[in-house]
Amino acid sequence: MPALKAQVAERFSERAFGLIFRPPPGSGEALVFERCAAVHTCFMRYAIDVVFVDAQQQVLRISAGLAPWRMAWCRGAQGVLELRSGEAARLGLAPGQRLQLF
């Protein structure tokens, strides 16, 4: 499993704004949303990789390079990772892979 430095978005403001007012995550960094199956990139200035996981933290879907002003969702997802664009491929993430996040 690839090593990720994950920050869990816990507070309402962290969950509501995500990466909107932040610089892109660094290499190997992720913003994690528990109990989440959809994200948007409204007001963002850069594209991101979005990784959807199920309750067992198995990767269900990856939306690579999700551009600003777009949405992505995944039925059955229980969590989402937001990564720097291209990071999912660099880390070798793929559907079916199990992660250890929360």
Describe this structure in words.
This protein is mostly beta strands and 102 residues long. Helix content is 11%, strand content 35%. It is built from 2 helices and 7 strands. The chain has helices spanning 12-17, 87-91; strands at 5-8, 29-34, 38-40, 48-53, 59-66, 71-73, 79-84. The strands form 2 sheets. A 5-stranded mixed sheet has the order 1-2-7-4-5. Strand 1, helix 1 (12-17) and strand 2 (29-34) form a beta-alpha-beta unit. The longest helix is centred in the first third of the chain and has 6 residues, at 12-17. The mean pLDDT is 94.
Short synopsis of the structure:
This protein has 102 residues and is mainly beta. It is built from two helices and seven strands, in the order βαββββββα. The mean pLDDT is 94.
Key structural traits:
7 strands; mainly beta; two-stranded antiparallel sheet; 102 residues; five-stranded mixed sheet
Shape: globular
The largest pleated sheet is described as:
5 strands, mixed
* Arithmetic mean of pLDDT: 94
Structural class: mainly beta
Strand content: 35-45%
Count of extended strands = 7
H-E order: EHEEEEEEH
Cα-based radius of gyration, to the nearest Å: 12 Å
Termini Cα gap: 14 Å
**Helix content percent band:** 10-25%
Give the spatial strand order of the biggest sheet: 1-2-7-4-5
Indicate the low-confidence ranges by residue numbers: none
Q: What is the number of helical segments per DSSP (H or I, 4+ residues)?
A: 2
